[in-house]
Every structure is written in structure tokens, then in C-alpha cells.
Amino acid sequence: MAADGYMGKVLRVDLSTEKISTDALNKEWAKQFVGGKGLGARYLFEELKPGTDPMSPDNILSIWTGPLVGTLVPLTSRYVIVTKSPLTGTFLDSYAGGFFGPEMKYAGYDGVIIKGKAKKPVYLWLNDGKVEIRDAKNIWGKDTYKTEEIVRKETGEKMARVASIGQAGENLSLISSVTNDLTRNAGRGGTGAAFGAKNLKAVAARGTLGVEVPDMASLLKMTKEMIKTDVVGNPDHAGMVTDGTPILVDMSNDAGILPTRNWHDGTFEGHGGINSESIKTRVLVRKKACFDCAIACGSWSKVKAGAFSGAATEGPEYETLGLCGSNCGISNVEAVIKFVEDCDRVGLDSISAGNAVALAMDLYE
């Protein structure tokens, strides 16, 4: 392990041959492209043949972190899936927060490059430098919530983090997503279909290896200053802590840019039913944060009564409130929560799904 924020290793898995190998991270590329998207793009450019069908075994599916992920620096929880998009046929980089990214890194890898197609459904298990291709017969056909539960039982690791697809990805939906921590999604572009096309149900990780940095004292000093000036000292900090991204519903509506009724309008008369105030007063259970976050803009929300009683999800976030709410003419935050939970369970990108439903409603009318 190098003391530069990188683990120094890239895991390679060929699902067709079941060959597992580890390469040293290309340090020159790491310097040029830093990490995450940059590294993923460079490796994809080098290794993917032009004209490759995104749904074929020859497509390359990779998962990447950056040098700050897993360190004490706040707001650095994210990982990125880089591949050729099943939806667009072009370059795809799709991100998610939560805890999977740091856990994958603690398991020993800066990136995971997956090729080929398994003969039967499988999942990958990464645990402190050890890797297994496991039979997914017990989780294929299950939703993402149940998948995470079963994988943790099978691995015996309650703290395992799981990035998985639901039935949408298994059925190769072009707007399917990869879901981790139940409600965090690498959406847009069909990441779930990229998994499903390889018969890959999930990638699960558990690690305790830690991340080494060259100067911990300086990093601690910088982190404290960053939290003081750029996070807590940011004038928008208080609003993000109390309201999160839903605060943008009212702001967007006032500016005339809130997606409404399949984008026909920019203002929605029912915005008060899906804004941050409606969440805080009607459905909020508790606040939530991603790994190592000093803002905690997330929230866990649950419907308490009515037709959707018991439905629960994280957020919902602004884009979901806009696309699954106002863009579909829905002014009820409880209905949006049910919409989002159903999407998360089957592994469907709620933003793309909201757009699709709004279009269908528009065409019907």
C-alpha cells in the first residue's frame, strides 16, 4: 500500500473464465487523471474496443474510487461506475454516495475492472484483499433490500456494503441502476443493465485495511480548516443541514424552473406538498449522513398513514421530488416516497423513471 491516498491495486475479474487477478495501479495515470472518473475513463479508453456492444460480454464494467475516499477529508464518500452505457451507447460515469465506496477501498482496491459474462448469476465478494466469485442463486430475482440482507448473512459480515441490482437490472432495463445502502443509486445510463448483462447480481465489500496518506498532521489541519470555513462556515450550510436538497423545490418553483407536467411548465401550484417543509412536518423520521460527511443533508422519511402507509425511503432528494412529483403532477410527498421506494427496491433509476412516467401521462392526454 502506498502512502499517497491510493491502495495501489486494481482488481480484475473475468466472469467468463472466472479468472481473478490484481494489477498495480498505473501511477502515471493516477497523477494525470487523479482518480475516480478520470482513472476509469483512461482505463476504458485503453482497453475497450471500438464498436463494442454495451450488452455484450466484451463490454468493460468498472468501479472506481479516488485518493481522498476513505480518508478523514469530509464529503469524499462517492464511488463511480464507468462503462459503455447500455442506454446511450457512449461513455458512462455514474456516481453514488453512502458507504460502499470507502468499504471497497478498505477491502484493498482503488478500482475493480469486470469483463466477460458469468454462465449463471453470481456476485463478487471482496474482503481485505481476498476475492470470491459466489453463486447468486439465493438472491437472483430478489429486490435490492433483500439482496443486501441475504449477502450479509451469507458472508457473515453485518458491516458488509453491497452494490446490487434488482429485477430491473436483471431484465436489462435501460434505466436500471446499481443500488447500495438500500437507497443510494448509481443511476442514469443503465448501470443496472450493465451488471445484468454480465449475470452479475452484486459486488459486496468488507475491509479493514485503511488508507495511508503521506502527512497525516497536515491532512488533519487541512480537514479542520475545510470544515470550519468551507462547510460550517458556508452560508448555505444551515439550510442543507435542516432541509437538504429538498430546499431547492421552493427555490426552483420561485425561479420558474421546477420541472412540471413533463416539462411543459416551470412552476407547480402543488409545490408546497412536496417541498422540504412537507417532509419535515409529515414524514421525517431522522437525519442521515453519508460516510465522513459534516453536512448530513440526508433524511430517512416514512409515510405514517393513508394509502401508502409504511412506505419509506431516504430523502426524497430534490431531483426525485421534481421528476417523480411535480413533473408527474403529483403534489403529495407520501406518493413520491412510495414511488421512490418501489424504484429503489427493483433497482430502477427514479429520476429516469419519473421522466418516463411523465412522458407516458403526457402522451395519454
According to CATH, the fold-level topology of the largest domain is Aldehyde Ferredoxin Oxidoreductase,  A, domain 1
Beta-strand content bin? 15-25%
Number of strands: 15
What structural class results from the helix and strand content?
alpha+beta
Write down the CATH class of the largest domain: Alpha Beta
Radius of gyration: 21 Å
Mean pLDDT: 95
Q: What this model shows, in words?
A:
It is built from 13 helices and 15 strands. It has 365 residues and is of the alpha+beta class. The protein folds into 2 domains: 198 residues, Aldehyde Ferredoxin Oxidoreductase,  A, domain 1 (4-Layer Sandwich); 131 residues, Orthogonal Bundle (Aldehyde Ferredoxin Oxidoreductase Protein, subunit A, domain 2), CATH 1.10.569. The strands form 3 sheets. The protein has a 6-stranded mixed sheet with strand order 2-1-6-3-4-5. A 6-stranded mixed sheet has the order 8-7-12-9-10-11. Helix 1 packs across helix 2, helix 11 crosses helix 12 and helix 11 runs parallel beside helix 13. 52% of the residues are buried.
